[in-house]
C-alpha cells in the first residue's frame, strides 16, 4: 500500500460506542490487496457479543442524538465531510489497496461519498411535517417526521466508502443511530471513516462499525434484534432476499439496494462517438463491478458495426494493472473467485455461439485480473444476457425495432439502471417511461449523484438513496390530531 500521511487512519480494531477495541474472542482476519495478493494487515474480527454491544450502545445513544437539533447534527456531518476531503489521498490509498480500483477512481468515490454528508447535513434542516385541513372545525391535524431509531447497515465491497456514507449520512441527519457492517474484504475504508467521524465530534454510540468474518452470525444478530428498527442493505439480490425474510419476525422497515442487469441501448439516430464514450465509462468503471454497470449492449442493426468497431478500439486503450500504479485505468477484480465466475460466463457464451471480439481469456498479470472483453453474436439463452456479470465483459446484441429493443431491455427480473442513446425526443420520453427500472441515463453513461434518487424496482430492491427523498427511508411519519379547539 502507498505510504499514508496519517498512519492513524489505518485502523485494525472495531469501533463500538466510541471505543477502538479488539473482538471479545480476540479473533482476527487478514485483509489482502487484490492487485498484489499480499496482506495489508490483520484486523479484529467481531462476533455475536461485539454486535450485541454495538446494538446496546446505539440504543443508549439514540435518546440524546434524536433530541439534538438538526443544525447541531449538520455541523458534525459537515466537519466529517471536510475531514474526509482533507484526507482524500490517504483514504484513496487505503481504498485502492483493499478494493483494487485505480487511485483516480478511488478519489472519485471518496468525493462522491463525502457529497452525501454535505447534502444530508443540509437536508436535515428541511425535515418538514404537514398541516392538514381538517374536516372538523374543532380539530387541527398535523404530521411530524421522526427518526426511525437504531438502524443496521450491511454494505458491499465494490464501493467501500460511498455505500457507507450513502446510508450513514441520511440516518444520522434524521436523528437515527447506526451500526455498520462493511464487507469482510474491504473494512479498512469503513474504519477510516469512523476515525474521522470521531474526530468530527460524533458522540459515542451514534455510529459503530462491526467487522467480522462471520457475516451470517452478525447479520442474524442485527436482524433478530427488536432494538434495531431498520435494516439498510446494499449487496446481491440473493442475500437481500434472505435478509428481508430475516427482518420479517421483528417487522423491520428495510431498504434494499440490490443487483442490476442494465441494458445500454443505442438507436440508429444516436451520436455513436458519444455512445461509445458512455459505454466505456458505464461498463469499465471499477472493472465492471458496479450495480449500475451496463450489462447488456442492445445496438440497432444499422449502427451495430460502427458502434462495435469503435467500442473495441476504445476498450483496447484501457490499461490493466495495479490501481496504485500511474496510468492504470482498469484494476483487478476483487478476488480469484470473481475472475473464475466471470470467465465461466464468457465460456458459457462462447459455447453457445458468441464471438470474442476482444479479450475473453484470463490475464497473465495474475489470478485476480481479467482483461476488457467484448462479445458479439449474443443470444438470450446465454448467462451474460440473463445474469449480472460484475466484471469487464460487454455482450453486444443487435436489434431491429424499438419494440424489440424494449422487450429485450425489460427481459430481466432486475430493474436498477438503463441507458438510452438517441436524438429523438419523442422516443426518449416513450422509451424511458416504458423501461422497467429505477434510473435512466439518456445520452449519459454515469448517472449517480447525491442530489438524485438512487434505487431500483423489481428485484433490484426498494427505497431511494440521496436526493430530497433520501431521508424518507430513515424517518417515520407521526400524525397528531388535536381536538377541543
Ligand atoms: P453480497 O455478497 O450480497 O454481500 C454484501 C454484504 O452482505 C457484505 O457485507 C456481506 O458480508 C454481507 N452478507 C453476505 N451474506 C450475508 C448473510 N447471510 N447475512 C448477512 N450479511 C451477509 O454482495 P457483494 O458481493 O459484496 O456485492 C456485490 C453485489 O452488490 C452486486 O450484486 C451489486 O449489484 C450489489 N450492489 C448494489 C448496489 C445498489 O445500489 N443497488 C450498489 C453496490 C452493489 P461479507 O462480505 O463479509 O461476506
Explain the layout of strands and helices.
Layout: E1 14-16, E2 19-21, E3 28-32, E4 39-44, H1 48-66, H2 70-86, H3 88-99, H4 103-123, E5 130-132, E6 140-147, E7 150-154, H5 162-174, E8 177-181, H6 187-199, E9 207-209, H7 215-224, E10 228-234, H8 237-248, E11 253-257, E12 262-266, H9 272-284, E13 294-300, H10 304-316, H11 336-351, E14 355-358, E15 373-376, H12 383-386, E16 393-399, H13 402-409, E17 417-421, H14 425-434, E18 439-442, E19 461-462, E20 475-482
Parallel strand pairs: 7-8, 7-10, 8-9, 10-11, 12-13, 12-17, 13-16, 15-16, 17-18
Antiparallel strand pairs: 1-2, 3-4, 5-6, 6-20, 11-19, 14-15
Helix pairs in contact: 1-7, 2-4, 2-5, 2-6, 3-4, 3-6, 4-5, 9-10
The chain binds NADP nicotinamide-adenine-dinucleotide phosphate.
Give Rg in angstroms: 23 Å
Mean pLDDT: 98
| Total beta strands | 20
Shape: globular
Q: What is the count of helical runs? A: 14
Q: What is the highest CATH level, the class of the largest domain?
A: Alpha Beta
Instruction: Give the cofactors and ligands.
Output: NADP nicotinamide-adenine-dinucleotide phosphate
In short:
By secondary structure, the protein is an alpha/beta fold. Helices cover about 35% and strands about 20% of the residues. Helix 1 crosses helix 7 and helix 4 packs parallel to helix 5 (about 160-175).
Structure description:
There is one protein chain. This protein is of the alpha/beta class and 485 residues long. It has two domains: 7-258 and 461-480, Aldehyde Dehydrogenase, Chain A, domain 1; 262-449, Aldehyde Dehydrogenase, Chain A, domain 2, CATH 3.40.309.10. It is built from 14 helices and 20 strands. It has helices at 48-66, 70-86, 88-99, 103-123, 162-174, 187-199, 215-224, 237-248, 272-284, 304-316, 336-351, 383-386, 402-409, 425-434, and strands at residues 14-16, 19-21, 28-32, 39-44, 130-132, 140-147, 150-154, 177-181, 207-209, 228-234, 253-257, 262-266, 294-300, 355-358, 373-376, 393-399, 417-421, 439-442, 461-462, 475-482. It has a seven-stranded mixed sheet with strand order 14-15-16-13-12-17-18, sandwiched between helices. Strands 9-8-7-10-11-19 form a six-stranded mixed sheet, sandwiched between helices. Strand 15, helix 12 (383-386) and strand 16 (393-399) form a beta-alpha-beta unit. Helix 3 (88-99) crosses helix 4, helix 3 packs antiparallel against helix 6 and helix 9 packs across helix 10 (304-316). It starts with 13 loop residues before the first strand and ends with a strand.
Amino acid at each position: 500500500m502507498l505510504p499514508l500521511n496519517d498512519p492513524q487512519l489505518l485502523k485494525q480494531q472495531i469501533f463500538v460506542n466510541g471505543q477502538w477495541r479488539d473482538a471479545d474472542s480476540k479473533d482476527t482476519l487478514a485483509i489482502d490487496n487484490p492487485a498484489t495478493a499480499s496482506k495489508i494487515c490483520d484486523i479484529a474480527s467481531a462476533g455475536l457479543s461485539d454486535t450485541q454491544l454495538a446494538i446496546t450502545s446505539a440504543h443508549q445513544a439514540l435518546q440524546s442524538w434524536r433530541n439534538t437539533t438538526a443544525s447541531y447534527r449538520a455541523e458534525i456531518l459537515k466537519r466529517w465531510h471536510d475531514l474526509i476531503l482533507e484526507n482524500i489521498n490517504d483514504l484513496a490509498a487505503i481504498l485502492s489497496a483493499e478494493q483494487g480500483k485505480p487511485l483516480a477512481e478511488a478519489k472519485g468515490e471518496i468525493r462522491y461519498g463525502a457529497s452525501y454528508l454535505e447534502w444530508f447535513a443540509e437536508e436535515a434542516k428541511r425535515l418538514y411535517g404537514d398541516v392538514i385541513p381538517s374536516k372538523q372545525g374543532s380539530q387541527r391535524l398535523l404530521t411530524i417526521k421522526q427518526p426511525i431509531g437504531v438502524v443496521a447497515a450491511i454494505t458491499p465491497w465494490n464501493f467501500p466508502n460511498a455505500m457507507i456514507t450513502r446510508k450513514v449520512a441520511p440516518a444520522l441527519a434524521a436523528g437515527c443511530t447506526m451500526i455498520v457492517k462493511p464487507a469482510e474484504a474491504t473494512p479498512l475504508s469503513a474504519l477510516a471513516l469512523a476515525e474521522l467521524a470521531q474526530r468530527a465530534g460524533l458522540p459515542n454510540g451514534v455510529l459503530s462499525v462491526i467487522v467480522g468474518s462471520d457475516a451470517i452470525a452478525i447479520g442474524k444478530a442485527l436482524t433478530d434484534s427488536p432494538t434495531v428498527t431498520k435494516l439498510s442493505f446494499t449487496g446481491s439480490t440473493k442475500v437481500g432476499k434472505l435478509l428481508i425474510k430475516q427482518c420479517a419476525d421483528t417487522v423491520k422497515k428495510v431498504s434494499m439496494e440490490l443487483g442490476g442487469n442494465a441494458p445500454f441501448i443505442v438507436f440508429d439516430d444516436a451520436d455513436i462517438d458519444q455512445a461509445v464514450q458512455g459505454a466505456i465509462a458505464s461498463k469499465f468503471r471499477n472493472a465492471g463491478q458496479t450495480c449500475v454497470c451496463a450489462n447488456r449492449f442492445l445496438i440497432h442493426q444499422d449502427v451495430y458495426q460502427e458502434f462495435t468497431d469503435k467500442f473495441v478500439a476504445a476498450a483496447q486503450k484501457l490499461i490493466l494493472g495495479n490501481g496504485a500504479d500511474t496510468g492504470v485505468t482498469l484494476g483487478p477484480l476483487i478476488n480469484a473467485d470473481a475472475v473464475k465466475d466471470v470467465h465461466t460466463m464468457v465460456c458459457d457464451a462462447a459455447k453457445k455461439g458468441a464471438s470474442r471480439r476482444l479479450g475473453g481469456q484470463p490475464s497473465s498479470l495474475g489470478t485476480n485480473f481479467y482483461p476488457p472483453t467484448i462479445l458479439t453474436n449474443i443470444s438470450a439463452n446465454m448467462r451474460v444476457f440473463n445474469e449480472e456479470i460484475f466484471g469487464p465483459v460487454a455482450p453486444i446484441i443487435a436489434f431491429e425495432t424499438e419494440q424489440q429493443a424494449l422487450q429485450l431491455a425489460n427481459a430481466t427480473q432486475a430493474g436498477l439502471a438503463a441507458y438510452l442513446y438517441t436524438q429523438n425526443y419523442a422516443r426518449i420520453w416513450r422509451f424511458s417511461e416504458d423501461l422497467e427500472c429505477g434510473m435512466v441515463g439518456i445520452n449519459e453513461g454515469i448517472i449517480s449523484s447525491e442530489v438524485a434518487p438512487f434505487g431500483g424496482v423489481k428485484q433490484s430492491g426498494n427505497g431511494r438513496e440521496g436526493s430530497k427523498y433520501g431521508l424518507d427511508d430513515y424517518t417515520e411519519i407521526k400524525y397528531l390530531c388535536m381536538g377541543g379547539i
